[in-house]
Amino acid sequence: MQKWREAEEALDNIKVEGNDRNEEVHITGYADGLHCIGVGTDAAVFVHDKAPNLAFKLYTEEALHKKSREREVYKRLEGIPYFPICYGEGRNYLVISYEPGPTLLDCLLQGIVVPEQVMRDVEEARRLVRERGLNPRDIHLKNVIIQDGRAKVLDVSEYALEGDDKRWEHLVWAYETFYSSIAGKKLPFWLVDSIRNGYNKLDEAGSGLEEFAGRISALFSRFLK
């Protein structure tokens, strides 16, 4: 608890600001021992040297109402091994277990092979989430990490919302369709970013997915030459 409070004092020196364009938050301020390890559209995640096993998810003022919702989701997911543990909260942050490991995005950029077991783990995690009466959505390249060949799923903030954004289904489709040709290869950021930008222009139902697949194939063909 003391280490937690030391980190809390450091967090008081940090401000996380959002915007109305659904872009990543902007961070200002500095505190010794505090390191940002991830940013999203509503919050940023920090670790502190004095509490290396904990991660602190610091929300923007506009997104504070989402903190209690996410805390409740973590309570309902207790006991499922595919997710971090939430230990508690402060006024504008959650305290969760720090989960090291490369994200699926890191794997593409660094040439780390993503085993099929990781994909199966996420499918099983989603099944267990549904059994708890929640909706496992918003699962993408940046919030699945690999630990010893197994998956850990980060960011459960949207699991209390309705609707299926199909992000994971489309990622599975891409894995089954393209991944064998690029497994173990380091993809340049521009290539991954081009694919991401193209995907974001699709609607939630994946309309135009076949045409999009053709464009991806053409990009990979040029890259693999």
Automatic annotation (TrEMBL):
GO terms for molecular function: protein serine/threonine kinase activity. It comes from the Bacteria. Keywords: Kinase, Serine/threonine-protein kinase, Transferase. This is Serine/threonine protein kinase. It comes from Paenibacillus chungangensis. The lineage of its organism: Bacteria, Bacillati, Bacillota, Bacilli, Bacillales.
